[in-house]
Design goal:
4-stranded parallel sheet; 57% helix; alpha/beta; 18176_t:CDS:1; 7 strands; 3-stranded parallel sheet
């Protein structure tokens, strides 16, 4: 667990621990698994009512992240530790934005003595408040609500039973497999999806917009430009090789290199491989190529052979086929 958490932190993944243990036990576990480090400033929030919770959160914000904080303290790592009783008030609609603001500024967050419902609420707070992808990993029945609330749920099969596994999207036997799931398979999957979505839009826009160009001369009669057989074969055969090529050779680096260089994972967090600008460039390229595919054959067939030769090669079938 310590090595895995250290690796995931290097990859830019923020880790929150939601546990039913009491505060002292949770802090000791945090230090033993590399979630908490000796050079971190611990922010302890423990209150018994709503007003006290808000006051402590605001004081922590001013003390550790406010405009008057010394530069040396701002550069320090911070860890937020909050118990279940306080969390009950901190998750209130009027306070939870302050909790989230402090949590996202801290390197680690530990929530102690939390109930299964509170675990799910914390995951929901992060997922909806920051508009990010969340992953929950747990090993027992008390983690089921948290696993189901997250975008991706992972269950660990072990002594705690198989309740978490049955509710999860993925299951494995040891926590350490999480780094390979994320840094290798997760990263490859992101690259694959980023390319495949763009590729599918591109290739379908090319032949669809070409039919639109034809409709200008067909009076928008919805007549097919292509023979129906070609429509069936377009995705099945004509454009199958690029899809298979992308599927077979989409790994920019191998698994070993991905594990040895966790910061490569940050491309997915920063959404650098699938952007709006890339998508619209693919669309514009497809529109341009559709114009080439239609207007060059159309120009060639403007003056077909005469009827006197007995041949006529400027019909719709010839245009669509070319």
């Amino acid at each position: 667990v310590p090595e895995c958490i250290a690796t995931l932190s290097t990859a830019g993944i923020k880790i929150w621990v939601l546990t039913g243990d009491k505060t002292e036990t949770a802090i000791n576990i945090g230090f033993s698994c590399n979630l908490l480090q000796k050079d971190m400033l611990l922010i302890l929030i423990s209150a018994s009512d709503k007003q006290s919770t808000l006051r402590q959160l605001n004081e922590a914000m001013d003390k550790f992240f406010g405009p008057n904080v010394e530069a040396c303290n701002k550069s320090n790592k911070h860890a937020l530790i909050i118990d279940g009783e306080t969390l009950k008030y901190a998750l209130d609609e009027s306070i939870k934005h302050v909790l989230l603001d402090i949590g996202k500024r801290c390197n680690s967050v530990i929530c102690c003595r939390v109930s299964p419902l509170q675990k799910a609420k914390v995951v929901s707070l992060v997922k909806e408040g920051l508009n990010v992808m969340t992953l929950s990993i747990g090993d027992g029945a008390n983690d089921v609500s948290m696993i189901q609330e997250a975008n991706v749920g992972i269950g660990i099969a072990g002594e705690e039973g198989r309740q978490a596994v049955m509710a999860a999207d993925y299951a494995f036997a040891q926590f350490r497999f999480l780094d390979k799931l994320l840094l290798v398979h997760g990263r490859w999957s992101y690259i694959r999806i980023a390319e495949m979505i763009s590729c599918f839009f591109y290739k379908n826009i090319v032949w669809t917009i070409a039919m639109f160009w034809y409709q200008i001369w067909a009076g928008f009669t919805a007549q097919y430009l292509y023979d129906y057989t070609y429509i069936l074969l377009y995705n099945l055969a004509f454009t199958a090789i690029p899809v298979m090529y992308l599927g077979a050779f989409d790994q920019d680096v191998d698994a070993k290199t991905s594990l040895e260089n966790p910061p490569l994972y940050k491309r997915g967090i920063l959404q650098q491989d699938f952007t709006k600008s890339k998508f619209w460039l693919y669309v514009l390229d497809a529109v341009y190529q559709s114009a080439i595919c239609f207007f060059i054959p159309y120009g060639l067939f403007q003056h077909g052979t005469s009827h006197a030769t007995g041949l006529q090669n400027n019909g719709l079938s010839d245009l669509g086929t070319l």
